[in-house]
């Protein structure tokens, strides 16, 4: 058994040896994805796509609970429509893929393959809204987008990726601002309740905000290697897009007014976050509530009387309480199966053999730490859900400890540069609000501002970069 495990594990590079290669190895060996002949366009294999489906299902329930409706917009945007909002165009132009030929004919107007869908929603809203009675419109779509990236990495940065993008319009500024922060809170709870990932929430600096937005907010996660990952964003547009696209409504006072607009998005980048926050040198470690398979049952000596029958009974009983469970009765050796499901990060493994049957027991193994628990078979239906909750909490607290231990304050620029270059994680520092200081930090260290956190601290009176009066405390980090 040990030889079989070593064979599987040796195919994964150690995290501390080469984190980037470890990540790629896990993506491939755990059968999450595969590459294609088109650079940056990956295949989401069933196991990887199932993780996304569970994220999607969780968020979709939350979106609908808060009054949002799903729609679907076209894949392509006429170039003239795309060009309507100059700042937005400038932000996305370097990444756009453009269709110039249809069939055998050159198109009279080029078509942009959507990098995002603001302009499509704006055009649609301008046609269907005329009165305050039509508002708010709270739409979301699940789709893929194309951004022509030079450097790609599975799930984290691709030429095509899956995501959701919400687009809403409102009669008042306050309602739109409440929407932006409300959706950010839903994203944050997705991290804490589903993914066991603690996020830092805050506002992006003007340099880092979304093209065309008045304000951008984000959730930031810290990976095992100390780099940050922007994991979701929400944007307040004010009336900027509305004025460019003539989205107006007649208010209760009879005056024609522009709508206030928002958008928000979260993508399959979260799969990358799950891998890098929780994984270990044996492969994936999946939080129970997002895992495609929550429990795998492995019968030992299944040909012996009662072993397979009892395994099937356990599977049936767990399915009755909505546990996602798999029974592996293949002809692979038990040792190989143990290593395979460890690689895939299945939260719980149930082993049952003839000797266990004699005692009316089975062995439950926790993926997070390989702890083995002997359990009465008739107690599994109570124990398994309780273990899911405790494992999730343990994973969350471990990830939170990583954030806490790798977040450091700096009060001088030399201290900041030393921390960024020698220590993993976040460095929090006061900032004057001037983009020149952000540019200098990136040039000197490659680190960027991640967000201005809602929970502010006063570390010093002055910006360590330039000496001017400090305005806000900002989290900085090297990032994906």
In short:
This protein is of the alpha+beta class. It is 37% helix and 27% strand.
- Parts with pLDDT < 50 across at least 5 consecutive residues: none
Q: How many helical stretches?
A: 15
Name the average pLDDT.
95
**Major sheet description:** 11 strands, mixed
- As a percent range, the share of helical residues equals 25-40%
Strands side by side in the biggest sheet:
3-7-8-14-11-10-9-22-23-21-20
What is the percentage of strand-forming residues?
25-35%
Cα-based radius of gyration, to the nearest Å: 25 Å
Principal-axes geometry comes out as globular
This entry's quaternary arrangement is single chain
The count of strands amounts to: 23
Distance between the termini: 37 Å
3D architecture notes:
The protein has 480 residues and is an alpha+beta fold. It is built from 15 helices and 23 strands. The chain has helices at 2-10, 19-29, 46-65, 79-82, 86-92, 118-128, 173-195, 240-245, 269-278, 307-320, 334-343, 354-359, 380-405, 413-422, 435-445, and strands at 33-35, 42-44, 69-70, 76-78, 97-102, 105-113, 137-146, 160-170, 200-203, 215-222, 228-238, 248-250, 256-258, 260-267, 295-299, 325-327, 348-352, 361-366, 372-376, 407-409, 426-431, 448-453, 472-477. The strands form 5 sheets. It has an 11-stranded mixed β-sheet, sandwiched between helices. It has a 5-stranded mixed β-sheet with strand order 16-15-17-18-19, with helices on both faces. A 3-stranded antiparallel β-sheet has the order 4-6-5. A hairpin with a 2-residue loop joins β5 (97-102) and β6 (105-113). α1 (2-10) runs parallel beside α11 (334-343) and α3 (46-65) crosses α7 (173-195). The protein is globular and about 80 Å long. The chain starts with a helix and ends with a strand. The mean pLDDT is 95.
């Amino acid at each position: 058994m040990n030889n079989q495990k070593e064979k599987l594990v040796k195919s994964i590079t150690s995290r501390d040896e080469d984190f980037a290669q470890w990540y790629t190895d896990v993506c491939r060996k755990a059968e999450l994805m595969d590459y294609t002949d088109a650079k940056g366009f990956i295949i989401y294999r069933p196991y990887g796509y199932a993780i996304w489906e569970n994220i999607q299902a969780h968020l979709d329930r939350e979106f609908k609970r808060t009054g949002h409706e799903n729609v679907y917009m076209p894949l392509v945007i006429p170039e003239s429509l795309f060009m309507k909002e100059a700042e937005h165009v400038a932000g996305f132009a370097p990444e756009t893929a453009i269709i110039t030929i249809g069939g055998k004919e050159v198109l009279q107007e080029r078509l942009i393959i959507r990098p995002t869908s603001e302009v499509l929603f704006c055009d649609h809203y301008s046609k269907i809204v005329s009165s305050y009675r039509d508002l708010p419109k709270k739409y979301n779509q699940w789709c893929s987008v194309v951004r022509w990236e030079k450097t790609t990495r599975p799930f984290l940065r691709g030429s095509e990726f899956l995501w959701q993008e919400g687009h809403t319009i409102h009669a008042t500024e306050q309602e739109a601002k409440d929407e932006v922060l409300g959706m950010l809170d839903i994203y944050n709870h997705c991290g804490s309740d589903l993914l066991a990932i603690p996020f830092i929430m805050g506002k992006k600096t003007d340099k880092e905000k979304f093209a065309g937005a008045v304000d951008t907010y984000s959730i930031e996660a810290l990976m095992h290697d100390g780099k940050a990952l922007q994991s979701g964003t929400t944007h307040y547009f004010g009336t900027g897009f509305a004025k460019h696209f003539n989205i107006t409504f007649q208010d209760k006072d009879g005056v024609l007014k522009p709508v206030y607009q928002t958008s928000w998005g979260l993508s399959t980048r979260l799969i990358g976050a799950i891998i890098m926050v929780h994984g270990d040198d044996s492969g994936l470690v999946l939080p129970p509530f997002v895992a495609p398979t929550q429990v795998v049952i492995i019968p030992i000596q299944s040909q012996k009387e009662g072993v397979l029958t009892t395994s099937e009974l356990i599977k049936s009983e767990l399915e009755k309480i909505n546990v996602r469970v798999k029974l592996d009765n293949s002809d692979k050796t038990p040792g190989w199966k143990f290593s395979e499901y460890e690689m895939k990060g299945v939260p719980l493994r149930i082993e049952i053999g003839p000797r266990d049957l004699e005692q009316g027991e089975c062995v439950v193994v926790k993926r997070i730490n390989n702890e083995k628990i002997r359990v009465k078979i008739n107690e599994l239906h109570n124990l398994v859900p309780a273990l899911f909750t405790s494992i999730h909490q343990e994973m969350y607290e471990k990830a939170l400890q990583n954030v806490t231990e790798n977040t450091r304050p700096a009060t001088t620029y030399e201290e900041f540069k030393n921390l960024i270059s020698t220590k993993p994680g976040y460095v929090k520092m006061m900032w004057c609000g001037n983009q020149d200081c952000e540019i200098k930090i990136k040039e000197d260290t490659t680190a960027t501002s991640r967000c201005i956190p809602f929970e502010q601290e006063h570390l010093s009176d002055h910006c360590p970069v330039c000496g001017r009066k400090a305005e806000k405390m900002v989290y900085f980090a090297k990032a994906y």
